[in-house]
Amino acid sequence: MTDGPLIVQSDKTLLLEIDHPLSDQARSAIAPFAELERAPEHVHTYRVTPLALWNARAAGHDAEQVVDALVRFSRYPVPQPLLVDIVDTIARYGRLQLVKHPAHGLTLVSLDRAVLAEVMRNKKINPMLGAKIDDDTVIVHPSERGRLKQMLLKVGWPAEDLAGYVDGEAHAISLETHDEWELRDYQRMAADSFWQGGSGVVVLPCGSGKTIVGAAAMAKAQATTLILVTNTVAGRQWKRELIARTSLTEEEIGEYSGEKKEIRPVTIATYQVITRRTKGEYKHLELFDSRDWGLVIYDEVHLLPAPVFRMTADLQSRRRLGLTATLVREDGREGDVFSLIGPKRYDAPWKDIEAQGWIAPADCIEVRVTLTESERMAYAVAEPEERYRLCSTAHTKVAVVKSILQRHAGAQTLVIGAYIDQLEELGAELDAPVIQGSTRNKEREALFDAFRRGEIQTLVVSKVANFSIDLPEATVAVQVSGTFGSRQEEAQRLGRLLRPKKDGHQAHFYSVVSRDTLDTEYAAHRQRFLAEQGYAYRIVDADDLLGPAIGDMTS
């Protein structure tokens, strides 16, 4: 027994005591191979899963490192069966390898003949395979490279993809660093880690410059690049950054969106257009074949739509870079990201980047509102599917939002919600413009620009502003409703505030929640990812909002 911060249990859960002096070291040690499940104040619960272990192995961590981390930080002896299981699970990765054969092209090579025999008998895997070359090697149909990796992961034998990548059509791209800016150390490390691995995902906090990592990867590839983004506004931000930070000119960068269909050496396309169906067909998926792309970048890869997943299965010979602030997917398709985009190549904790001064510190506050009697009764008798909308859009929240804005008078503020009627009500009450899905791109960009210049102090926004919108001046966000319990949405919304502030002040993130309802339950779930990143929420009562409970919020 030691006085370590970790309790390792035989059901593969890890309990981490947050107040322990070694908790940060332990957290860093287990983060590559354990997934957070619960994060209340004092003890966080992690789980060791096969996918997390294989991700760690693909990123260069071996079983010895994993076992050492558990033994070193564990307060009690680590259950021996657990250690054996970890070693065995990690050993399953890479016993099958995808390799380019000089004569036969793409092949599946086995370091364990019994494993090859086992997967060849699988009815879903067998049709993807061709003739056997020898006892250890079987030909793979090139178009099945991605789907085969997906299926092998599902049957518990994840393949190591060593088949390499085509260079694609060459196109000169260089970073143009100067006195005003240069690559930060973590951005360089992220780009290098991706390039060494050939494909995979880089996880960095919102506001830390993921676009710059993408630009650095493009400079390494020196090839035509397809960049997939969440919306047109985000695409145009990418274009502005690339023109400012690289040798690329406006003429070399095309926009492929609902408004334009330009295909150029660097083409920025929206997920929305690519996944649009015409007479039941995804007509725009041919964009993937329109050029000999050397690199495909997936911005906000945790949002990758299913049709793009399917198309990505055909792009396995191209280098692929996924960028995200959180690999959490509420649909549970993390395994598909691992198979089709690649393993996690680089991950920087939010608080580490904050400590270096590259993102702003944030104060997170949950404000609990008591519904009026009539609101509470309407909620009580509502159909189950209507309850969340009713409690999260309660009119009682309006006065609370006004109080928060008064407390931060003069601050650039975002009011964020999920329901259009609620946002329109708030827009009218606050005399603030509303940006939602139906707002035309030209109007969106004009309002965002006016906000950046300080001409507009408050914007009311729907989930269209969750992702890839650069608003460095925003210092306060008030969340009034969300997409049920979405952890990644919460992370992205806080991310709107994390650009460093010129005056060094911290950001303030409020979540206004109706007590004794589903709103409270979903809020707790949404906060889990941020709690893991070291952000602690304080809960205050709406009635105390104007009192001393929240502290000095004018800083």
Mean pLDDT: 88
Percent in strands: 15-25%
Spans of at least 5 consecutive residues with low confidence: 548-555
Strands of the biggest beta sheet: in what spatial order? 12-13-11-14-15-10-16
Total strands = 23
Look at the helices and sheets and give the structural class: alpha/beta
User: Into which percent range does the helicity of residues fall?
Assistant: 25-40%
Defining traits:
555 residues, seven-stranded parallel sheet, 21 helices
Describe the structure concisely for a colleague.
The chain is α/β, with parallel strands linked by helices. 36% of the residues lie in helices and 20% in strands.
Write structural notes for this entry.
- This protein is of the alpha/beta class.
- Helix content is 36%, strand content 20%.
- It has 21 helices and 23 strands.
- The chain has a seven-stranded parallel sheet with strand order 12-13-11-14-15-10-16, with helices on both faces.
- A hairpin with a 2-residue loop joins strand 7 (129-134) and strand 8 (137-140).
- Helix 6 runs antiparallel to helix 12 and helix 7 (185-197) packs across helix 8 (210-221).
- It starts with 5 loop residues before the first strand and ends in a 14-residue tail after the last strand.
- 45% of the residues are buried.
- Residues 548-555 have low confidence and may be disordered.
